[in-house]
Every structure is written in C-alpha cells, then in structure tokens.
C-alpha cells in the first residue's frame, strides 16, 4: 500500500522564492504540494478548496499576513496546520504566531532539509520552532496592541491620512485621532510614526 503523502500549500509573495520552495519540497517523496499562492487571501481560498495538511507561509504579505491567516484558520477550527517561514527573527513575532495557533516557525536561511523535517514533525502532531528563537520567546515583552491598534498603525505606515483611515474603518477622523493617541501612549512613543517603529521593532506589527 502506498503511504499517504503530506499535502501542502505554499504561500510566499516573492515568486522566485515561492517557486524554489515548491520545486525543492516536491522532490521529497512523502510531500505533495497541492497549491501555492502569493498572498494570504489567495492562500485561504486555496486551503478551503484543497484542505491541505499544512500551509507553509511567510508573515508579511499583501492582502492578509501569515499570522492573520493562522488566526482565521484557528477560529474556524480548520484541520490545516500552519507553519511560518520568515526572515523575522524577533521573539515578538514568534509569540504572536504561537498565540495564533502556528505549529512551526523557521527562518528563511534554514536548509530545505530542515524545513522538510519540520513539516513531517508538525504533520505528526508536534511543533517545530527554530532553536535560536525557542528560548527567546519566554523573555519577550508582552504585546500591548490589539487588532485595531495594528490596523491603524499599518495604514499609517502605508502613508494613509486620518481621513483615509477613518473612511476605511467607517469611523470619524476624531475617533481615529483618539485611537492613535491611545496607541502612542501604550507604546511610550513620541508620535504615531514612532509608535509604528516601536511596534515593528518588537514584532508586534
């Protein structure tokens, strides 16, 4: 009897890197890539269609981040497990990922054999976290931001004005100003751009 393969969806916004990961993992006899996508939104549709065992995703991507994708799948009690492969080595990112239900977290400079072994470990019900990050997560400062804080800081980073942010969130500009004031205070920042830098540096954004 042929052993069932571990079915994967790969999510990476850089086309060359995505194609390389797909090609290399497809060489592993027990792994099967059933789809790949350039962003979290497209990946979610693909996961819904193919019901893979594991989705291997970056964090920062258009439409929906890897952590947001993991949170969405966790809320829906999806059977698909999530693994992050990223350049972000800050403990704050790892802690947010684990809180979102992510089962694996590796850095992009890891060898492909390590990624394949991590996939097998997660598929077997375990966790696979880069050794250089596993201990640091216990010392990470608590994330003071909520989803609303993150949303407005990301839009500010993208250069959107209070008016534009207010329209996107169906709120008044005054409410947005109040939200920014609260977020700046939470982070001990000088202004909203400084707040964004602090949040990004700690892996909270």
UniProtKB/TrEMBL annotation:
Molecular function GO labels: DNA binding
CDD domains in the cross-refs: LuxR_C_like (cd06170), REC_DesR-like (cd19930)
UniProt cross-references to Pfam families, sorted A to Z: GerE, Response_reg
Taxonomic lineage: Bacteria, Pseudomonadati, Pseudomonadota, Alphaproteobacteria, Acetobacterales
Organism: Neoasaia chiangmaiensis
PROSITE patterns: HTH_LUXR_2, RESPONSE_REGULATORY
Stated name of the protein: DNA-binding response regulator
Keyword entries, A-Z: DNA-binding
InterPro entries per record: CheY-like_superfamily, Sig_transdc_resp-reg_C-effctor, Sig_transdc_resp-reg_receiver, Tscrpt_reg_LuxR_C, WalR-like, WH-like_DNA-bd_sf
Gene Ontology terms describing biological process: phosphorelay signal transduction system; regulation of DNA-templated transcription
Domain of life: Bacteria
């Amino acid at each position: 009897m042929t052993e069932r393969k571990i079915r994967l969806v790969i999510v990476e916004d850089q086309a060359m890197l995505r194609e390389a990961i797909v090609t290399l993992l497809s060489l592993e006899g027990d792994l099967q890539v059933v789809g790949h996508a350039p962003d979290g939104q497209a990946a979610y549709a693909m996961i819904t269609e193919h019901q893979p065992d594991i989705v291997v995703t970056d964090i920062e991507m258009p439409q929906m981040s890897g952590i947001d994708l993991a949170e969405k799948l966790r809320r829906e009690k999806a059977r698909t497990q999530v693994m992050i492969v990223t350049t972000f080595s800050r403990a704050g990112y790892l802690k947010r990922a684990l809180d979102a239900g992510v089962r694996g977290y590796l850095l992009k400079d890891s060898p492909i054999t390590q990624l394949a072994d991590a996939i097998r470990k997660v598929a077997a019900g375990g966790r696979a976290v880069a050794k250089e990050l596993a201990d640091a997560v216990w010392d990470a400062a608590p994330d003071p931001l909520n989803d609303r804080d993150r949303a407005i800081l990301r839009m500010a980073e993208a250069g959107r004005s209070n008016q534009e942010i207010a329209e996107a969130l169906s709120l008044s500009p005054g409410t947005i100003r109040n939200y920014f004031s609260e977020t700046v205070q939470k982070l001990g920042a000088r202004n909203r751009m400084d707040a964004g830098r602090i949040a990004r540096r700690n892996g909270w954004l």
